[in-house]
Structures are given as C-alpha cells and as structure tokens.
TrEMBL record:
GO annotations of cellular component type: extracellular region
Compartment list: Secreted
Keyword Cell membrane appears in the UniProt entry: no
One GO BP annotation of this record: intracellular cholesterol transport
Protein name in the entry: ML domain-containing protein
A GO molecular function held by the record: sterol binding
Species this protein is from: Anopheles atroparvus (European mosquito)
Keyword Disulfide bond belongs to the record: yes
InterPro entries: Ig_E-set, ML_dom, ML_Npc2-like, NPC2-like
Family: Belongs to the NPC2 family.
Length: 166
C-alpha cells in the first residue's frame, strides 16, 4: 500500500509539472523591450509541439501559434511580420509575412472572433498557423522572428524563438 501511495504521489507531481509547463506556453525571447508595446513577460505564446526551443518544424506539418496579449493603446489595424533568420539573413515566411493579423484575432476565450480595431486594456488571442512545406531544406539552426505591428510600422508585440527544420 505504501508503494502504491508513493507511485500515486509521483504521478500527481509529474502530471502537475506537465500541466504547469504547458499552461505557461513556449519559452520565447522578446525582440527588445524598447520595440514592443506589450512586453513578452505580459503575454503568452504557445507554439504547437514546442515548449522550449529549438522548436522542431517538421516538414509536411502545420505549426500553430497562439499568442495572448493585452494592447496598451487602441489599435486600428495589425500586420504580421514573420521571417526566419538563417546565418543572419532574414528570409520571410511566404504567405504569412506582410499579411493582416486582423482575421486571426479573437477574444480572450480564443473562440469569439474579434478582428480589428483593438481596444486598450482588452485581452486578445492571436491564432495563426503555417505549413512547413516538404520542399523546405532541412536546416539545423535558425531563429523565427514573429512580430505584430501597426500599418505605420510600430511594433505592438514581438518574439523570437530558436528553431530547426527537420
């Protein structure tokens, strides 16, 4: 009976740690506190199948990004700037980079479509996915740069995460 209790206690600790880790999202780096109106510490980023970088971007799969943030000012429109830094060179994510973020903005519940404009102090969930195409070469080391900015180029939120294409 003592062995059962010890195993049950261990199971509770392991499950608790797993839930805690996934509830906190993926570990990412801010693109610079001076550039971002919403500090990365105040929002949560969750990249599918990646708790800690380098994230493995598997070819022939779709990667989902969920980001929760609260704007500190009213925002009319948001655009997405996404690129991979490979050996210091920025290569845009075709089909994602330069597109409007507005169709991918939801209320805090992640279900209710919000879109633009955004109100200061109202929590937002940004949900986006992208395909990792089979034609992409295997790349052992890159940095994904993901930024939401206004039409005038003002950064609202920005994060980077190490990754590799496998």
């Amino acid at each position: 009976m003592k062995m059962f209790s010890a195993n049950l206690a261990l199971l509770v600790v392991v499950v608790g740690c797993s839930v805690y880790g996934s509830a906190n999202g993926t570990v990412v780096e801010s693109c610079g506190a001076t550039r971002s109106l919403v500090p990365i510490e105040e929002n949560t980023v969750d990249i599918s199948n990646c708790e800690v970088g380098p994230c493995k971007l598997k070819r022939r799969t779709t990667v989902s990004i969920n980001q929760k943030f609260t704007p500190t000012e009213d925002i009319k429109n948001l655009d997405t700037t996404v690129f991979a830094k490979i050996v210091g060179l920025p290569l845009p994510f075709i089909g994602v980079d330069g597109t409007s973020a507005c169709p991918f903005l939801f209320a805090e519940d992640g279900e209710t479509k919000l879109g633009c404009p955004l109100k200061a102090g109202v929590p937002v969930t940004y949900k986006r996915s992208f395909d990792v195409l089979e034609i992409y070469p295997k790349i052992p080391s890159l940095t994904v740069h993901w930024e939401l900015q206004t039409k005038s180029g003002k950064t609202i939120t920005c994060f980077e995460v190490p990754a590799k294409i496998v």
